[in-house]
Every structure is written in structure tokens, then in C-alpha cells.
Design brief:
2 copies of one chain form a homodimer.
Chain A: E1 10-14, H1 18-26, E2 33-38, E3 42-44, H2 49-53, E4 63-65, H3 66-69, E5 76-80, E6 83-87, E7 92-95, E8 98-101, E9 104-107, E10 111-113, H4 119-124, H5 131-148, H6 154-161, E11 162-166, H7 170-185, H8 187-190, E12 200-204, H9 216-228, E13 232-234, E14 239-242, E15 246-249, E16 254-256, E17 259-262, E18 266-268, E19 286-288, E20 300-302, E21 307-309, H10 322-340, E22 355-360, E23 363-367, E24 372-375, H11 376-389, H12 393-409, H13 426-434
Parallel strand pairs in A: 1-2, 1-9, 2-5, 9-20, 11-12, 11-17, 12-13, 19-21
Antiparallel strand pairs in A: 3-4, 6-7, 7-8, 10-18, 14-15, 15-16, 22-23, 23-24
Helix pairs in contact in A: 1-10, 5-6
Chain lengths: ~425, ~425
């Protein structure tokens, strides 16, 4: 991989997400060589992907070049690479651009959409875990409306204007709210020759409440906000299958839709060589101890979504969200410095800073450790926190400007099909509609 | 195409570029049904594409949804469509989404890259006429540097870091200048483990001066600006061929480069049915009279790059730039209104407002009808004019913020490979390098 030998120990970090970046920052100017590998050349701010999908933000505003994060970090090497396999005996990583040895390895590969083995949904549904996926969804939504204009078949037109979002976590709730706002504020102006009131936004949740990781009051309020916006909230329904048009469930309820967004589960991104059953917990997470060491290894660590540190408060590991990843990255960074200085490592203690979700304009829910609130103030808190955690001054300013503009104008201007999206079997879908 | 019948005459406009949009605005609230067709759902501000390619701007900032332009225009219908053929006898347009009849037709299809029949350059070179093309070029530039890191073969590494831009018009000059600034300001920081001083930016011009459409003093000054930035300017050299690595010319000079950008020519986008030899001038432009009527038709008009109106001052038609397109669109719009009111049409008179090009920070050249100037003030004028003509308040603010940021920080943050680019024959290129 063309990385110079060094007399310092080599730390290889796989993944430039919240955890990997937080960790890397701690290793600046230390007696270590650090190699960061990622399959993208940018860090991406996943909590705002739904705004890219719904034309509220430009993709570049929520991404940040990893090389820029590492500017002025001596002994740091970034490589754009797909990791293929890890040989834990030889301490060697194989990638598409060659092999690399490590002294210490940090796995921070994050998570990916989990379809729980459902091939139909995987083939025909949309995911929203990466920027390209979010742009595909944006294109599909816009293309659906363009296509709806062209048909006189009411059945087909309704399917094109119906949306089914599966999963009542923050992603599902936020996307459903944003689509409802588009339906209300933009569609009637953009498509005066289409009866856009017929567009339906359905949010389907398997459990008995939305935002199950938040408080009961947040769940209740989020549901009420969504209903105010005209979203159909379906609870206690489990989506069974999807063929590109028909959604079946475990109940009598079914949907006809050209767009199913699957936000109902993630699993950790495992790597060959570290994916033996003994390492993995539910959802492919790697079991780690309180120092983030992967069970059975002293020199392999895991942080963020991919790591499962079982504690009294979190018997199944910490939530797969930005905050635990950032805190774990920082803790591990400090510990690796201690390791270099031959000092004992300190166990990780998670500090719950609360959680939040936004449903729409002036509508958000916030659970802080000591206080819970909803509505306008919560919405401002949500925006402030997201701006604060966004990397890069320019990104913050541009996102802020966009939000002010969208707020004042009830608009989202980035509704551009720059990346036309074709489902691999769109033809089949058209055929389905004729049936 | 599912467009309602109307008692008013139907105007079909093909193309939502500068000309088509300027024209459409004139027809608002008139006794006409207007159908605008475009293969994209957005208008795109072509003069700033090079800033998308070089990471200075986000693509969404220089694009604007066509439906938003037409919001609140009664009797306007936008359709996302590829026009396939025109039957001028039946006054019928065939598209990928069905047929449509017209009473009056306006062809505003613009221009595309012209390779003058050179298959090698077409296959292996990069164009920069659309947003997807600009994003592909951005990805290729960044991928080249990532790849350069991985090789010890100095020959291959140089080819990856060399850039050949063919064409000394505004596009070539502006792209060369931007790349030179990246080489100076960003590469050494982003790639500390690469000797980025070896990166070469070559601008190759067939004629004996750059910016041939501008004044001699502008040409001279632009060339000096480029040389100050370290660009190699080659004049009186005609590029002959390119195989993905070797550039041959009509002289002894040759280049090894993984990136050839072809900005040396455009031709009008013609449509089947209107492409008979009798209609077409050089570069596939449609010959029109002073009312923009295509020769031989009273009901078919052409404006912008696709139209060639031969006048005393412009025996080969007006320059293929934004200003003539906008002015022609407005003039034709007024004339179509006169036509509806049974008034005589007024011939088009082009008002030359001057031209300008920017080379880099504080370096631009401006030719106004009465005064020519270069340097810092010219650069501010260039920015002001481009912001002014950009459509959309949000776009203007976001572009302005980006420019201020880039100016203050000597930076361009949108250097993201969101759309990984694979040349169809990249494998061949790798093979070439081994030879």
C-alpha cells in the first residue's frame, strides 16, 4: 500500500465515521504512525441524510473530505480502500489496493442496512444509509411524480404518489415528516396538473410506539406531530414482503406503492477474518470489553456501531448512534496514548447526553437526561445541536443558510434529479402495474 | 403525453437552458398553452461548471428546478422528456414519454461537446458540459491523486498528476487556473506524502492566442495570469489523438496524462426531422432569420446555441454563450406575444454587453464595449455578474458564501468523490502504463 516503515507502532483505523475521526484526532502528534482507511474520501453526517433525500440540503454540505480533517497531522496516512480481509495471526489487512500490516487495529466500520434476509425488500426497496443511496431516493421520489403525470391509470398514479416508510426510529420519523411537508408545501405548486392531495405517506412500525429508544412522551408527541402533518402512522404491523408495487404485512393491511423505504434495521459491517461466530453478537457487532478490545485480542479494538460493549445499563451494547461512537473514539484515543506511554488504560463510561428527533417545522422531540420537551424550542435545540456536530465551518454556514431559507420560504430547492435512478427491475414494476 | 387540449395555441419549447427559460418567462399569463420539455428537471448554470469539477461549488448550487421557475405560471406544462424526432408536416414531436403536437415550436436545445469525429478523444477524454460530466471530472481528478499515492512507478505517477486541457476558450482557461490554484493551495496539504510539485497543468490551444473571442489585451493578460499560476500554456498546437495515456499533437510535442479534458469545441444539439442538410450550418446550428424562424418554416423557431442568425456583425451567427441565448429568448418571447396579438414581429438586435473570464484569485479579464480591464477589479466584476445571472436567491447566497470561504481560506471543500468515476476502459489505461 506504499506506506513508509516507521519506528513507531502502526495504528490502522478502518472507517472514517464519527468514531474513527474522533479517535484519529486524539492521536495527533503522538509517537505513532496512523493509517486511516475508508471506502469513501469523505466523512458523512448520517443524521441529515434524510434532508438530502428530500431536497432540503445538498449532499456536499453534509460531507467533509477526510484528508482535510487530517491536514497537518504528521505521520497520518489516509488511503481510499475497500478492506477485504483481516489476517489476525499475521496482523495483516488485505484491501483492494494492497496489503498492510498493523501493530494495533481499530475497527470502526459502522453499520449498514439490515433487511433480515428479505430478498424482495432488498431488491426493490430503498435504503438511506449513504449519500449515494440518499441521492437515489431523491431521484426516485421526483421521478415518481414526473411519471405520475403521464398516466391516466388512477391505480398506477396512486402507487407512484404513495410512500411507505418502514421503521419508526428517528430516520423513519424524520423522513416521513419531511415528505409530508413536501406534499403540503411544494407538490401543489410544482405539479398543478396533478391531484397531489392523493399522495399518501405511510409510516409503518413493527412495535407499539414510534421512537422506541426515546421516552414515552416523546413517542406520543412525535406520533401526534406526524398525524398533524397528515402522515398515516401504522403501528404493530410488520412488513412481510415487497415486489416493487405491493407491500404485504403480517396483518390484513397492505399497500400499493412504487417507493418503499427500508429504515427498519441496521447491522454492523463485519470484515472477513473477524467474522467468526465467537466474535459476533446480534446484528454482527463485535463483542468488546470495557477498553474496546475485541474479545480474544489485545491489539484489536472496535468502536461505534460495530462494537458491542455490554454494560449494566446497556446489556446489548450502546445505541448505534453518533454519540456513543464519538465518545468511544475519544476514550479509545486517550487509551491508545496511554498505551504508548505504558500507562494503564481507562475503562469506557458512556455519558448519555440525551436523544432527539425532528418531525418538521417547529416540531421536534428532545429527551435530555433531566428534562424532556417537544415543539418549537425542541426544534431549535435540534437544529443547534446538529449544526454544532456537523464538521466544517463552511458546511455549518451553508446548512444554516439552507435551513433559514427553507424555513422562511416553506421550500426545498435542491429537488434536482442529477443522478437519475433506475431500479434494476423497473420494467418489472411497470409490468406489475399493468396487471 | 397527457397534456390537456386547450383553445389557445400550443407553444412547445424544447430545452430549459438560458434561452428557453428567458422565453418562457415572457409567455406568462398570455393566451397560450406552453409546454416546456427538457431531459433534466433542472436549469443548469454552465459558466460555473468548472467550479463544480474543481470542488469549489456544490452541483446543486448552480442548478435550479425548472418546475420552480414555472411555479404560478398557469397554462404551463413541464415534462421531463428526451425528444426523439420532429415531424414538421404533422407538427408532431416524438419523445420517450409519448408524442405531442405543437402549433409553434421553439428549439432551444443548446450545444454539446464536439470531438470533430475523433473517437479516441471521445472515448478517453473528459467533457464538461453537464453537471454529471463535471462531477465525473471531479471524481477522476481526486481518484488520480489517490492512485498516484499507490504507485512507485514514477512514469505512471506523473501521468496521474498531469492534466491536459484542450481548448483555450473561457472553459479551458478557467479550469486550468482553478487546477493550478488547487495544486498550489490544497495538494501539498492533502497529500503530504506525495511530491505534488510534479503535478503539471497543460493548456493546449490550437490558435495563436487564448480567449480568441476576446480582445488581444485580454488574451495576453490571461496568458500571463496563467503563467504566474504555473500553468504550461501551449499555443499553435493541435491535439491529434489520445489513448487514455498518450496525447499526440500535430507537432513533436506530446504529453503523458491520465486526464485529458476536451474543451475545444461544441456543436449544436440537432433533432431528427430537423437535421436535413438544408437547415444546418457549420456545427449543426439551425439557420434562422431575424425573427428566429428556422429557414423554410413560419412556426418553428430556434434560439441560443442551436440557432445561427447571420448578421453583418456576426456572419457565422452569435457567439454560443449565455448572453445571446438570453437576449434571443426575450426577443422571441416578445415576438410570440405580438404574434398572439396579430402584431408584426420585431427583428432581433444583439446588444453586446461584453465578455469576461476568470483565471483565479484576483485574476480576471473583462472586455466591456467601451472599456477593457484586468486583475482584481475585473475579478470582482466577474463574480458580481455571475452571481447576478445565477437563478435563485438561495443559490446566490450559497455560492457567495462558498466564494468568500474559498477566498479567505484558500480552500475548496467540496472535494468529495460522491460519484466514483470509472472510465469504460480504465483497465486498458492501466495496461498502457505497464507498457
Amino acid at each position: 500500500m506504499n506506506i513508509p516503515q516507521s519506528s513507531n507502532p502502526r495504528f490502522v483505523i478502518i472507517g472514517g465515521g464519527f468514531g474513527g475521526i474522533a479517535l484519529a484526532k486524539k492521536l495527533r502528534d503522538k509517537e505513532a504512525q496512523v493509517v486511516l482507511l475508508d471506502k469513501h474520501n469523505y466523512h458523512n453526517f448520517q443524521p441529515l441524510l434524510y434532508q438530502v433525500s428530500t431536497g432540503g440540503l445538498e449532499p456536499d454540505s453534509i460531507a467533509y473530505p477526510i484528508r482535510k480533517v487530517l491536514q497537518g497531522y504528521p505521520n497520518f496516512y489516509f488511503r481510499l480502500a475497500n478492506v477485504l480481509e483481516i489476517d489476525t495471526n499475521k496482523r495483516k489487512i488485505s484491501t483492494n489496493i494492497g496489503d498492510i500490516n498493523y501493530d494495533y487495529l481499530v475497527v470502526a466500520t459502522g453499520s449498514q442496512t439490515n433487511y433480515f434476509g428479505n430478498k424482495g425488500i432488498e431488491a426493490m426497496g430503498m435504503a438511506m444509509k449513504t449519500i449515494p443511496q440518499s441521492l437515489n431516493l431523491r431521484s426516485l421520489i421526483l421521478e415518481n411524480f414526473e411519471q405520475a403525470l403521464l398516466t391516466d391509470d388512477l391505480h398506477a398514479r396512486d402507487a407512484l404518489m404513495n410512500f411507505v416508510i418502514v421503521g419508526g426510529g428517528p430516520t423513519g420519523v424524520e423522513l416521513a415528516g419531511a415528505l409530508a411537508e413536501i406534499k403540503k408545501g411544494i407538490l401543489p405548486k410544482d405539479y398543478p396538473d396533478l391531484d397531489t392531495r392523493r399522495a399518501q405517506i405511510n409510516l409503518v412500525q413493527a412495535g407499539d410506539r414510534l421512537l422506541p429508544a426515546m421516552s414515552e412522551v416523546a413517542s406520543r408527541k412525535a406520533e401526534r406531530f406526524l398525524e398533524e402533518l397528515g402522515v398515516n402512522v401504522w403501528k404493530n404491523i410488520r412488513v412481510a414482503d415487497y415486489d416493487g408495487l405491493h407491500v404485504t404485512t403480517d396483518t390484513d393491511t397492505s399497500f400499493n406503492t412504487a417507493t418503499l423505504v427500508w429504515a427498519a434495521g441496521v447491522s454492523a459491517v463485519s470484515i472477513k477474518g473477524l467474522d467468526a461466530k465467537e466474535f459476533l453478537c446480534r446484528g454482527n457487532r463485535l463483542k468488546v470489553n470495557e477498553f474496546h478490545q475485541v474479545e480474544g485480542f489485545k491489539e484489536i479494538f472496535a468502536i461505534g456501531d460495530v462494537a458491542q460493549m455490554e454494560t449494566e445499563d446497556f446489556p446489548n451494547g450502546h445505541p448505534m448512534m453518533a454519540q456513543p461512537a464519538i465518545q468511544q473514539g475519544r476514550n479509545l484515543g486517550d487509551n491508545l496514548v496511554r498505551l504508548l506511554e505504558n500507562k494503564p488504560m481507562k475503562p469506557f463510561v458512556y455519558k448519555d447526553k440525551g436523544s432527539m428527533a425532528t418531525v418538521g417545522r417547529n416540531k421536534a422531540v428532545v429527551d435530555l437526561p433531566k428534562v424532556k420537551f417537544q415543539g418549537v424550542f425542541a426544534w431549535f435545540v435540534w437544529m443547534f445541536v446538529h449544526l454544532y456536530f456537523l464538521i466544517g465551518f463552511r458546511n455549518r454556514v451553508v446548512v444554516f443558510i439552507n435551513w433559514v431559507y427553507n424555513y422562511v420560504r416553506f421550500d426545498r430547492e435542491a429537488r434536482l434529479i442529477i443522478r437519475p435512478f433506475k431500479k434494476q427491475n423497473q420494467v418489472d414494476r411497470n409490468k406489475l402495474m399493468q396487471d
